[in-house]
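Hey, I'm writing a tutorial for new members on how sequence and structure tokens pair up, and I'd like a real worked example in the thread rather than a made-up one. If someone can provide the structure for the chain below, I'll link this post from the tutorial.
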Amino acid sequence: MSENYIIEMRNIRKEFPGIIANDNITLGLKKGEIHALLGENGAGKSTLMSILFGLYQPDQGSIFYNGKEVKIRNPNDATALKIGMVHQHFKLVEVFTVLDNIILGAEDSKFGFVTKKAARKKVEDLMERYHLHVDLDKRIDEISVGMQQRTEILKMLYRDCEILIFDEPTAVLTPQEIDELIKIIKNMAKEGKSILFISHKLNEIMSVSDVCTVLRKGKYIGTIKTSETTTTELAKMMVGRNVSFKVDKTKANPKEVIFKVKNLCVLDKTTKKNVVNNVSFEVRKGEIVAIAGIDGNGQSELVKAITGLDHSTSGTIEFNGVDITKKSIKERIELGMSHIPEDRHKHGLVLDFNLSENFVIQRYRNNEFSKLRRIFINFAARDKYAERLIDEYDVRSAEGISTVTRSMSGGNQQKAIVARELDRPHNFLLAVQPTRGLDVGAIESIHKKIIKDRDNGYGVLLVSLELDEVLNLADTIYVIYDGELVGKFENDNIAPEELGLYMAGGKRMDLEENKEE
């Protein structure tokens, strides 16, 4: 390969039990270049980058840094070479503050004690320079997923890295934050930093990258200049077939109300202010209602109140004509509520359980999966069910139903949750970021299944930061800003720019739903 490459990965092979994650892959990165890495869920992208960052060791192949072969045995070796990585699944200590997480492992000390004054100043300068503002004194478990993502980026910048790996960096960001991040990445490249950018979002790859390498099922498909290709061509290279980017659906035919929120308030325990303030809306059978907004405007707290993960301070929630405001999570599930959660690790999966166990985690006591008066699990029925879901939802894993979910790619973990929640008996679906981290082929499939839920007469509440997803799926759109619903639209060619004004707080309506009786 050319001497112009700052990093070369030659003939890399990595095998895990039951799967070849990387099969003889060669990749080169030039100084000041933004090189995108594209592929389906489980194509081997994160594995390849984890090898470069020292988290895995290749079974075969070599890594060259400025033309010299190097051994990257662990992340410390990578950091010494000025290689940094923003991980898809954050590597943060939840009980530490943001500042402590950023400097962890690179702390200044005096007389054996950690000193933070200079570190804080450096981080504050980085936040100002790159428009990545985070409350440095908040604990990780107190901030949103989007803020955690910023923390990961700042952690890398704090170490003065010159080769920056972004693994799905926009998966949890709002459209405005994505635009800002793309500007930041381009400025980094102009400064001479070299970027490896993993993403499933084709429009982002087209707008940010200079070249794109495509992987499929662990194999190298090709490298192409972004300026010389199209999203259609990239999608076909990625999944091996033509992909439709537009959701095909008929006009909704809504029936009676199945889900109703009235004057709901949720109090922030720290600030003692309402993070959800007097919110009211309805979802009818046979329609998709979406709540759009910039991350951190009360969506997470609203979802927790709806699902029973947290309690509201006032207001009511009705489901199937039953007041569920104070009912347990289990009772809500038994009434027919399915929930695709925002955070798949915290609320979606037991990571140390295998796929088969995770698929029936809410239903293992049901007659279908138990025997002898629900004393014993019917393992044969459970495993047969799991195999069907794996096949139907294309959940890719090294060891099938026995795969420990922690070892799976983020996209395949998401597909497992979607499979479980859409397949089990329900009449109301709460889908929060349902396609987070999924490739275009999987997004197309999941969107079709959500539309099918609607057409089967179920109620669907979609909470998404992806404007394209909201506009593709929703029949009715509410906009949330600062914990309040500030706009309501029937989705008949509403302009994204108009929605953006409401999302940013620039405009608001006086909604009937929000008026107290």
